[in-house]
Structure formats: structure tokens, C-alpha cells
Amino acid sequence: MPVLRSGFPHRPARSFAATTAGALLAVLALLLGLPGTADAAAGRRAPEPTHPGQDWAGSQIAKHEGTAGGATPPAGSLAASVEGVDVSSHNGNVAWSTLWNSGARFAYVKATESTSYTNPYFAQQYNGSYNVGMIRGAYHFATPDTSSGAAQANYFVDHGGGWSKDGKTLPGALDMEYNPYGATCYGLSAAGLVNWMKDWFATYKARTGRDAVVYTSTGWWKQCTGNSSAFGAINPLWVPRYGSSVGELPAGWGFHTIWQYTSTGPTVGDHNRFNGAYDRLQALANG
Hints:
Layout lengths: L15 H17 L26 H7 L15 E7 L8 H6 L4 E8 L3 E2 L3 H11 L2 E7 L7 H13 L11 E3 L14 H19 L4 E3 L2 H8 L11 E4 L17 E8 L3 E7 L2 H9 L1
Parallel strand pairs: 1-2, 2-4, 4-5, 5-6, 6-7, 7-8
Antiparallel strand pairs: 1-9, 2-3, 8-9
Helix pairs in contact: 5-6
């Protein structure tokens, strides 16, 4: 018969498993309450994109920020800038000779989105721009809620986003803009998005040796990253603003490298200006 010590009420013994489970649940509840931690919680991944052919650099900028400014090229010395374009599958087979004859000298081509989509026109667009004489590069449309930054960077490099020092290939670009499928900031905190991009950029550099370009608008950047200045010293900025000037830049960048100045230009719609002379564009390609 058990003996009860006086002054200590008897309590039923708890199993080790129950105690451990309770402690783990308490820790999990605490972690999920911390800002940004829930971003990576299991089961929060969004479905793969359902209309990636409708998502291109600026497709959501135009919807959210408008297209004021038209297709008139901005004023500026041709010696200090270079005309270019960007294309995706919605452009189909591109008339590269027409663009070359109109003065375009570089192009960015959408290669991938998430880890499930590759541009079916990529070969015609990427190789066609190269064959006509342009310096060209590839870009990835980011969906940070579907998979990790590393997974998407690897998918991009494996499906056209690589780099070679041939003097005609620009570093890859990461397209960060309004979510076409739901929550503007992909359901992530500012810290979560910044960490996702750091993961993408680090993986891309490890695979290619290059620091990638970031495409983003100042409005989205402020709203979704808290106007982070974490990338300005390293990653060249490709900024969309459809008007007569490039306007305010996101925090961290003292200047832009590429300006997407219209979404309604001739032949393909999206037209850009490189901020520098042609030899500086070549330097960007050569790394």
C-alpha cells in the first residue's frame, strides 16, 4: 500500500510522452506568434500558378499603378542610354529584326515562374534576340508563396536563366511585383519576403557567379518589404515607371540601372532604357 507524505497532495503521474508533447505544443504556439515565423509554416504553400502566361514584368504594375505616360520615349542623350525591350510568352514569336532596326540593343526574356512554368517561346525570344545582335538576359517571375527562394533560383538556372561570359548575356533578373493570384505581398511579412529574396539571390550567385538584377516598383517595394535597403549595394535595379521620369527609387539604391518606361511601346509593348552608354551595358554583361 503506497504511503502518502503529509503536506504533499497526491497527483496522478503524467507520462513522459504527454509531457514532451505538451512542451512542444507550447513552443510551437510561441514561435507561430513571432513576426514572420508563420511565413514558413508547413502547409502554407500556395498552389502553383494557374495563368503564368499572363504574368510578365510589369503586368501587375500596370494593373495596380497605371500606365500614364504612354509610349513616347523619355528625353535623354542616346550616348548616355541604350534602348531595350522585355518579352514573355504573351508576345509570341517576336520580330527581332524590326526591333533591332528601330534601335533596340538589349532584351530581357521571361524564362520561368515558380517551379512549374517555362516560357514556351523562350528559345525563339532568347536566341532570336542574340542572333540579331542584341545583348540579352533572362528573368524569373517570383511567386514567393509557392516554394523557397532557393528552389525557384535553381529552377530558373536549370531552365534558361544561366549566365556565360560571352559579352552578350546579361545577369539573370528576379521579377518582384504584385501577386497576380491573391494577397499583394504573397501572405509574407516584410522580413519573410526579404529573407526569401536573399535565399534566391544567394542561390543564383552560387550557381552562376553573378549578382542578379532585381525588377520591382517603388510602390510595391515600400508596401511589401518595408522599403528594405538590404539589396541596393549589390543587386542592380530595374525599375518600372510609366511616365516622363524614373521618379523615386526604393531604399538602398542611389541610381537605377534599367528603367522600364512604357508598357505600350511599338512591336512588343514593354520598352526600357539602360542608364549608361553601350560600353557600360557590355560591362554589365561581362561581369
